[in-house]
Amino acid sequence: MGISYVEFEDEAGVLRRYRKHVNGRGLVATTAKVDPTAFVDPTAYVDPGAEVQRGAQIGPGAWVDRDAIVAERAVVGVNVHVGPRAVVGRNAVIGPYAAIGAEARVQNGARVPREMTLADGDEYRASGEDLRRLGLAA
User: What domains can be seen in the chain, in order of their start residue?
Assistant: First the structure.
């Protein structure tokens, strides 16, 4: 049995091809890089050029936009949008229904609250409590 693909037309009218990820069966663009240990929920998708690293989790209904990076062990919650060229740092947690703007940065270990919108180009820093949770602060 061969690899099966799903095709979608993007907003510019270009036909994009997606395949089901081995861990979770979410849709991943053929030009995206998703580590086999990452989990992509069946209702989530990862756009062209995006990267999802080792042990990351992409939750139900989440969308990782083009050229975005979700680093190791990061968690992208339910119905989260990670904008184009945004970066979600290692061990970061993005709460449900949050939106990370284009080219925005979420620091390693930061916890973005539920329904928060991070504007384009902004940076969200980890709190002392976030760092303590990871054993990185005294």
Answer: 5-133 (2.160.10.10)
